[in-house]
Amino acid sequence: MTSPQSSISPSPPADLPRTAGDLRAAGYRPRSVKSEIRENLLAALRAGENPWPGIVGFSRTVLPQLERALLAGHDVILLGERGQGKTRLLRTLAGLLDEWTPVIEDSELAEHPLAPITPVSRRRAEELGDELPVAWLHRSARYTEKLATPDTSVGDLIGDVDPVRVAEGRSLGDPETIHYGLVPRAHRGIVAVNELPDLAERIQVALLNVMEERDIQIRGYTLRLPLDVLLVTTANPEDYTNRGRIITPLKDRFGAEVRTHYPLDVAAEVNVVRQEARLVAEVGDPLVSVLARFVRNLRDSTVVDQRSGVSARFAVAAAETVAAAALRRSALTGERPAVARPIDLDAVPDVVRGKIEFEPGEEGRENEHLVHLLRRAVAETARELFAGLDLRPLADAVADGHLVATGERVTGAELLAALPELPVLHEVAQRAGVSADEPAPRLASAVELALESLYLARRVAKDVDGSTAVYGP
C-alpha cells in the first residue's frame, strides 16, 4: 500500500499555476517536507484541530512525543508490539502535508519546478525556463509505505542500473541509466518502513547513506541527490533491543524514538473496537466491554507469551465473530433485528485462538485458558454493570422452576417468555442501555447477561447440551 487514502487521487483545482513562471509569480517557494509538516502541524494545534483523526488512546502519551519529534524535524522510529496502531499512526502523517504540491510535469522524482535535482530535470528547467510545465500532486500520493522483508533488495529501496537504458548507448557512469527505487521516488514526501529490523544489514547501510549523505550508491557509482524525505519506521522492541537487528549507525540517525502501547483502559479498548470493527449485527456496549476486558486479561495472563503481544486486532476480530454468530442465529430463527447475546461469546475462543501465542508447556490447554479468561471478563463486566442491583428475584424465579433456555435456535422472545414479569428485569435492561419498549432481542441480550452473571456467581446452574444452554436451579 502506498497511500493512506484512495489509490485514485482527486483532480487538482483548475486555478493552480501551470508553469514555473506562473508558480514563481504566485509566490510559491521551495520548502522541505519537514518544514511543511511542522508548519501544518503548528497551524492545526493553534486552531484547536485534531491532527490525528482515527487515533485512539494516544492523546496524552504517544502523540505529544510524536508531535515534538515532527516539530524538531526528526526522522522517527515507532517502537511497539504488534497491533498497537503503529501503521495507522504513520498513515495519518499524510494529513499534515499540503493538499496539493507543485511538481515538474513528467519528472521521475516529483521534483519542485523551482528546485530540480536530477540531471534530466535541470536540463529541462534550463531549456524551458519559465515555461517549464507544472503538475500538481495530491498529498495521498506523497506517502509511500514499504513492509520490510528479508528479501528486500537495494534496487527495491534505492535503485539499480537500468539495462535497457545502457543498451540504448548510455554509459554505466551516466546518472540517466539509473532506475530509481522507492526512497528516491518518495522525494518531497514521507517514506514509511514497517518492521525495519527485518531489512538485511546491507540494505540498512544503503538506507543510512540516503539519510546521512544524501547520495545514492549503485554498483560502484555515486550519484549525489539532495533527497528531501521524512523517514518514519516501525519496529518491535524485542527485535530492536534484544536481537539488535537495526545496525547501530542507522539507529543513531533517527532523531526520535517513540514507544507505543496498547489502550490503557477498557474505555479506550472499546473505542478501538467500535471504530475498527465491521459488525454485521448489533453488538451492545456490555458485550463489547466484555471483549475489551477479555483482551486485557489476556495481556495480563502468565500463560500467554507477552513478548509477541495481544494485538488490538484480537478484540476487533472477536467483536466481528460475535456479530457473525448473532447474524447466523437470526437467519436460523427468523428473528429481527440480529442482536448479539452472551451465548454468542462462545464462538470467540475457537475462532481467534490462532491469534494468540502461549507459553511453552501450555499445549492442549489453550482453549481452556481462553474460556476461563472470557468468563472472568463476563463476570467483571456484569459486576460493574449491575453494581448495587439486587438480582435475587431473578435467581429465585429460576430456582422456582422457570428454566431459561438460550442457544443458536432460541429467539430473544422465547428467552423472555420463560421468565415471569419481574421489575428487576426492567432495571437490568436499563443498566444495559435498553428501554422497555425496545425489540425483544435487545432486551433478551441484557437479561441473558444477568443470568450468566448469576451462573458465574454460582447462584444458578447452567446445563449445556450442544449449542443449547439452560439456566436452572
Which parts are unreliable, with pLDDT below 50 for 5 consecutive residues or more? 1-7
Mean pLDDT: 89
Total individual domains:
2
Name given to the CATH architecture of the largest domain: 3-Layer(aba) Sandwich
Helix/strand structural class: alpha/beta
The total beta strand count reads 14
Q: What is the highest CATH level, the class of the largest domain?
A: Alpha Beta
Fourth-tier CATH superfamily name of the largest domain: P-loop containing nucleotide triphosphate hydrolases
Number of helices: 20
What is the approximate shape? elongated
Helix content: 40-55%
Looking at the chains present, what oligomeric state does this protein adopt?
Answer: single chain
Radius of gyration equals 29 Å
Largest sheet: 5 strands, parallel
- Which strands sit side by side, in order, in the main sheet? 4-7-10-1-11
CATH third-level topology of the largest domain: Rossmann fold
Distance between the termini: 56 Å
Q: Strand fraction band? A: 5-15%
Structure report:
By secondary structure, the chain is α/β, with parallel strands linked by helices. It has two domains: 20-259, P-loop containing nucleotide triphosphate hydrolases (Rossmann fold); 266-472, no CATH class. β13 (461-465) and β14 (468-472) form a beta hairpin. Strands 4-7-10-1-11 form a five-stranded parallel beta sheet. Strands 12-14-13 form a three-stranded antiparallel beta sheet. The two termini are 56 Å apart. The chain is 42% helix and 14% strand. α16 (366-385) crosses α20 (440-456).
